[in-house]
């Protein structure tokens, strides 16, 4: 009994053609997906670079604010001392006026 190779090959040709067409479509889709993935990766890298720069700037601003806070605290301490001195001086002045008026 002979195997009908010609008829098998004849029937196999459309199947192989459909498989090749399917693989071609899948390859095209994969290329599109890879291109989109590459674009997303590039955008992610750019976003990370921007985020790193923002973090550096935020750190610099925080350091400046800490330094300014120290300056403000020192000035506040001086102002409180000046206020106490002014109150004491005013009390002395009022006492001197009272003494001067009484005598």
Task: Describe what this molecule looks like in 3D.
The structure is a single chain. With 103 residues, the chain is an all-alpha fold. The protein is 95% helix and 0% strand. It is built from one helix and no strands. The chain is rod-shaped. The model has no long low-confidence stretch (mean pLDDT 87).
How are the secondary structure elements laid out?
Layout: H1 5-102
Which descriptor suits the 3D outline?
rod-shaped
Rg on CA atoms, Å: 43 Å
First and last CA, distance: 149 Å
Give the fraction of residues assigned to helices.
over 70%
Main beta sheet strand tally, sense and closure: none
What's the order of the H and E elements? H
Unreliable stretches (pLDDT < 50, length at least 5) are none
Task: Identify the notable features of this structure and list them briefly.
single chain, 103 residues, mainly alpha, 1 helix
Briefly, what is this?
The chain has one helix at residues 5-102. With 103 residues, the chain is mainly alpha-helical. The mean pLDDT is 87.
């Amino acid at each position: 009994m002979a195997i009908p190779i010609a008829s098998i090959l004849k029937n196999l040709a459309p199947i192989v053609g459909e498989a090749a067409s399917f693989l071609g479509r899948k390859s095209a889709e994969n290329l599109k997906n890879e291109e989109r993935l590459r674009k997303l990766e590039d955008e992610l890298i750019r976003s990370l670079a921007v985020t790193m720069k923002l973090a550096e700037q935020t750190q610099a601003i925080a350091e400046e604010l800490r330094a300014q806070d120290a300056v403000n605290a020192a000035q506040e301490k001086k102002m409180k001392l000046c206020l106490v001195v002014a109150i004491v001086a005013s009390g002395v002045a009022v006492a001197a006026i009272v003494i001067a008026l009484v005598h």
